[in-house]
Protein 1
Amino acid sequence: MRLEIESIDIHDLKPGSKTYAKDRILYVNSKELEEILLKDSRLKSVDIHFVYPGEQVRIVNLLDVVQPRCKIDKVEADFPGFIGKMQIAGSGRTRSLRGITVLVSNPCTNRKYSALLDMSGVVAEMSRYGKMKHISMAPTMADGTEERDFEDAVKIAGLKTGVYLARGGEGHPVDEVEVYELDLPNLNEKSNLPRVAYYYQLYSPQHDHIGISDPCFYGTDVRNLTPTIIHPNEILDGGVVGAHTIRALDTYTIQNHGIIKELYKHHGKDLIFAGVVCGVANMEPVARSRQAMMASNLVKNVLGADGVVLTKIHGGLPHVDLALVAEECEKLGVKTAIFIQPLISYGTLADTLLFNAEAVNLIITVGATMERIRIPLDADRFLGGTADSKIYCPDPIVQHAGDPVIDVEQFLIAGVHDHLGDANIIVKEY
Amino acid sequence: MNGKKLKVVHYLNQFFGQIGGEEKADIGFVVKTGPIGPGLALQRALGEKAEVVTTVICGDNYFSKNPEQAGEEGLKLIEPYQPDLFFAGPAFAAGRYGVACGAICKALGEKLGIPVVTGMYDENPGVEMYRKFAFICKTGNSARDMAESISHMTRLAFKLISGEKEAHLVSRESLPRPVEYGYFSRIILRNEYTDRTAAERSVEKLLAKLRGEPFESEVILPKFEKVEPPAPVKDLRACEIILVSDGGLVPKGNPDGLSGRGNLRWTTYEIDTFLPANFKSSEYEIAHTGYFPVQILEDPNRLVPVDVLRDLVKEGKVGKLHPTFFSTSGNATVSQRCAEMGDEMGAEMKKRGVSAVLLTST
């Protein structure tokens, strides 16, 4: 499979009477975009705004961040299963706009928490998105739409916006072409290099709002997924999208997948990238054990890996699941490097492990996503909600977006932590 | 620091305070003006920026007999001087002195909120007892290391009082790196910026592991002690059973403020009023974000089996149901704090004279 990502660096976003790119400026016709999005009858209206670094604006009720991308050489192939018709993502040419994103808010959300972003102050400094320019979009719900159905519609509207913007880049000179090519069936068998696989914990059902899972994989949900092998390019190119109001993992993060890109970088030099096994976190012990056994078997006996990097999603339950997969891999003789995230900032690093397995001895601290931080208000404008939008705190505190100070866990801030390893963060004892 | 000299109070034991040796270890608190003994070195290290206004001295035996109480006594003496900075010791390897330095730092730090700095050798029992409450610089094991220890303590204290935001911390808190400033970590965790992404670190380290080379895990595996299960209860009819749950069951409004995740507290409720036979579902909530609480909110007896125990008591199969229920929330709480809460609950149960515990989880 060969994927070419053609990147254009966009330095500015401006309103325009049509959507096109010139001299690294993307002009956007919001009216046309709105019309496209409102073809979905689940949306009543959509608020579209331009957002720039340094502005005193707070974007709330975020459920996703999307990098504008579109397929160049295929039709109906963007985010297959979500927008495009079902086909396999990950081959051909993709246009990608760098320096800008789509900020997707659900102002009608009833979830306990959603993410937020400030374009000035502490948050803008912390977040990778604080330095970028954005199209913020926030749809409202059409009468008679079910809450969860609406959430799906909002997510899809975000993806559509990304595709729409990327199409505007047509004809603009390309700044960089990245080639991701991995011929899995014909990997060099004679190489002495170690074969390294990636175990991607895709999903956890623990935050399923009103008990319904989020679609995140070719248009479907994966709550009951048994481990499966996919090509890494499928992940980079729209086969997988974000779920569950970000929590250190949005579509942007998946499109720029840290581990996959890193393994590609090393491929053929000091390792052979042996492929990806996807799995999920489980609510039941039998399912958990099935997941661990099947995943480790795929890693060892199907991909033939000598080593595997394992990444996790969300909080405690997936931590346990992931450790079990790692433990089974080590039992089969596959060396592991496992990502963990301390769930609390009290105690030693060792205290925060939720497993006890001697063989799982290479642990990477991807970031304490639940570290608390107090954020003074540095905004006079609110997008995606209002100054009265609730902001979650694990303590019994009721707080709102317009409060002088909010006390939040860092995973609520879009673009700080990255479960897939592309943030320069480590956790240390202090 | 805006030009004004910082006021410093220094704590010493009877020996370094030049009162006497072991024979004077029982003396109580003595307050002296200006620096004494190691205080002179401290004053030199502080230079023009700060002045040791007072030295507080106490005998090692007097202090270590009841460190918490002595700490409070010291606090009362020191408070009127309104210090900006507080130093104790350094205590090096001296155990009683280390405990005293730790305890007085704890008392002052908690009450006055000023930087409290001491110094100890890593085997000093004061380190484990007080590292959470004080900045304890690492020192050698004897007073030969005095000048260097004092210089480290001073450097750390000035850093702490500067309030400089730390660019290497995601939170930007004013919290110097333990490694850089040579102090024992205070057993908290912080996100630090680093030049390599987690993806880069993981692949690089895994390659070393695959090649059989040394590799550095970012977390060293914990060693858990084995807990022997206690002997079974012989006769339930002679038993008073207490109910404990970590399922986060609390009255509506969560008046005791248990956290839904990473909770560090536990609390008690009187069963008669908390969970009567004619309870109302609407009067409860679950301070625990790690499970679906719907069934328990419908009937809290599903988590805390009061109904069944009441029946068993009536039927004479169980002696007595203890009238108080202990509630906590166990969701991604660190094991160390869980063990502490277990000790606290155990001590309270002993006091109450219960004979068996029924622990229910989710």
Protein 2
Amino acid sequence: MSAAVVTGIGVAVPNGMGKDDFWAAALRGESAIRTVQRFDVSSYPSKLAGEIAGFEPTDHLNGRLIPQTDRMTQVALAASDWALADAGVEPDTYDTTEMGVATSGASGGLEYGQRELDNLWGAGPDHVSVYMSFAWFYAVNSGQISIRHGMRGPAGVLVSDQAGGLDAVAQARRNIRKGTRLFLTGGVDSSFCPYGWVSRMSAGDVSTSEDPATAYLPFDERARGHVPGEGGAILVVEDADTARARGARPYGEIAGYGASCDAAAKHGGAPGLRRAIETALADAGAAPGDIGVVFADGSGSRADDRIEAEAIAGVFGPGAVPVTVPKTMTGRMNSGGAPADLAYALMSLREGVIPPTINVRTLAPGYEIDLVIGEPRPWQPGAALVLARGKGGFNSAMVLRAIA
Amino acid sequence: MRQITLRELQDVIRECAGEDESAQSLVDAANEPFDQLGYDSLALLETQARVRRDYGVDFSEADLSDIATPQEFLDFVNNLLMAAA
């Protein structure tokens, strides 16, 4: 069985579009958090977000695609193009069934859905677009990516909130192991419309701060929830032999994966995050000491921060491994967040530097983690761990390893 | 009596299915099959719904199966409009 390696990165996050911009912004510690511009947010309790500015769909997509795509799909399609270009892959040189697609989705195309619901209740059923039949749907990013690049192998969507971003990439690895040669995987989410906004607020933990510098402070003693973000990443994953044969230069190997689910609060029991981490390490054949950096989920709500800090310190030892949350610059991008973290981790493996966590100053008492605050930190690339947790008790962990 | 012209059909279909700068104008391609012009069944379904609504013609999704080109679409709708007048 050949290893699954990442050979292409297509990333679209609020502080940088494309691999080069996104990485430069991360190292500068550049925040994209500000008042929502996409709709009038003034009457809502939460007002800040990490928004992608200046993305013009017609710069990237044929006009025929615009009426049938939500913003999240438009961004995902652009990211899929960038990923393939970065990998130097030309899909038409493959058999269509040798290529698959697995993405994550947390909410579907809510902006599109809200517009059509407005049409339904405001103007009548005759005014609802036929494209509503799929444009809002969780699986639509996988479907449109599959159509765009002629990828007719295994395809699917993973829906487990923020954790789904890792679950999707694990699904890609599973299919690579079964013989699919190439996968586009990852996830992009966006739901900056009133419908999406209130959905996020009802899920809880959205910061009501109006100060971009203090609204989202994971692990900080002042933590008060998170700021939503939009975007994510699409990655090219191939089996190592295929990648080697065509002379590709992989960013890293998807070496290990673990997932767990928390019991409902009424049943009690230990949080599952530590189990997910230990499963991923075992799957990678890695000891805790092999991991050189942890990209934390960084919920920003105190109860979740505590669970995560304890899980990391419990597995690795107090302060024994650098931990970072670049999402402090972008906000939490739902199912796009973990794929973006994979992109940060892969760039860290290649460049030998860990992007910082911004705005955090003082860790809450009892959090025994070594958070990389304010400035990037050099490291000796070996292996990185990415964590992602979703509402509903989803915990996922993925180990990425440098190619020897 | 109201009739739909090729140019009007082009405007409707572009609004429904999106503009493609490189695509051939319907006015110059009235007898080209829709699929050759890059319009799939959903694009036609959306166009049919819009024409039904805006022109008040009673035609259904099933009628589309016999319509392959812009000219056939036009003839079908104009016959219905004439019959209704």
